[in-house]
Amino acid sequence: MKNKNNFIISSLSVLLALSANSAFAQSNYKEASNAFALYTQTGAIKNLENAKKQLDNIYKTAKDSSKTRVNVLRAMVMSSIAYADSARTIKTDKDPIDLTYQTLGRIREKDREGYPGEISYVKQNLAAALIKRANKSLQGQKYDAAYSDFLKVDELNANNEDVTYNLAVLANKAGKSEDAVKFYKKIIESGNATEQQYLELAALYNKLGESQLNLTTLENARTKYGENKEILFQLIQEYASVKAYDAIVPIADQAVKMEPDNVELNYLAGYANENVNNIPAAKAFYEKVLEIDPNNYESNLALGLIYLKDFLNDTENHEAQYNAQNFLLKANEIKPYEINALKSLAMFYEKADDAEQLDRVNLLLNQLTN
Q1: What ranges in 174-262 are assigned the alpha helix state H?
Q2: What is the C-alpha to C-alpha distance for residues 102 and 121, in angstroms, rounded to an integer?
Q3: What is the pLDDT of residues 267-320, one digit of tens each?
Q4: pLDDT tens-digit profile of 20-51?
Q5: Which of 115, 116, 203, 346 is the most exposed place for a label (fewest CB within 10 A)?
Q6: Among the residues of the chain, which ranges form H helices?
Q7: Which of 59, 37, 35 is nearest to 121 (CA)?
Q8: b/e per residue, 161-181, with b = 16+ CB within 10 A?
Q9: What b/e string do you get for 194-223 counting C-beta neighbours within 10 Å, with b at 16 or more?
């Protein structure tokens, strides 16, 4: 009988202890909830610290620390500390960002469905805290760390285009070119890409040696931003690099209007038109170059060759003869030892039957080529 009484007393003691612990945990939870509510109303960090203190008391037992409502509240408190307490005045054993993730990991996916507003609040705070930390890493040029944090932000809020753009830029800086392309393409596919973002993607493709993708990106950019000078000029430059002169011709006039005194642009426009056999337009652009810079060797030679061709086809064309001689001599004057100008002059003098000048030019050519 005595043993039975002892068992009853022992059992009652356990039950009373469990009841006391449960009441204590409930009291802590209520205190934590009230403190957190005060924080949301006042923004006072001391209330966050109090909420954390009460939750730490609950977390002393495995049973209470596994409860969903406790972990939801703790995630809200920790994420708020992570974002609001940037000076880290509230002492924690780990970074509050890591503690927030750890706490979220204790909440099963199916249980989160009952707390949509609370989970959204946690994710917003986490994202803001991660962005703060990433920007701090950027200031120290720690691009890998910043990139890692922005990746986490992207996972929390995949539709944030500012975050996606940061990821594109950081991936590029961190040498993760393929990842950078992926993020730039995501921005462009959204339909909201800026002129600069198109140009950055094109430059990235150029760095990767993807010339066709580079061109396609610039062409798409021009379709959307037809009046953007930087896109137009870059596109012309890329067409020139692959000798796509027929593609330059339709857009050359627009480019020249933007920079009418640009010698290189006018010459390229002339050269492109000459390559598609649009000789009158080619002449006009070359002549424009000489209005700006009379001593431009390339345009003097180009005009000389155009008129030389006409003269070779028709020796009775005295205008062509006169112009060919003048432009070729001017080119030779600018660069006396340039082989192309000398060879062209030799052809001209041979056709013009000027033996004395032909001998002079051939003598110089022999000296330069032997």
Answers
A1: 177-189, 195-207, 211-224, 229-241, 245-258
A2: 16
A3: 999 999 999 999 999 999 999 999 999 999 999 999 999 999 999 999 999 999
A4: 444 545 788 899 899 999 999 999 999 999 99
A5: 116
A6: 2-42, 45-58, 62-65, 68-84, 96-104, 109-112, 116-139, 143-156, 161-173, 177-189, 195-207, 211-224, 229-241, 245-258, 263-275, 279-292, 297-313, 318-334, 339-351, 355-369
A7: 37
A8: eebbbbbbbbbbebebeebbb
A9: ebebbbbbbebbbeeeeeebbbebbebbbe
Residue pair 174/164 in contact by the 8 Å Cβ criterion = no
The structure tokens listed for 29 are 């939870």
How far, CA to CA in Å, does 303 sit from each of 38, 252, 281, 316, 349?
Answer: 83, 19, 12, 19, 17
pLDDT of 6 reads 46
Predicted local confidence at residue 17, as pLDDT: 38
Lowest-pLDDT range, 17-26, 112-121, 138-147, 338-347? 17-26
Q: Residues 161, 192: contact at Cβ < 8 Å?
A: yes
What is the sign, positive or negative, of the torsion defined by CA atoms of 328, 329, 335, 336? positive
Residue percentage of the chain with pLDDT more than 90? 79
pTM, two decimals, is 0.77
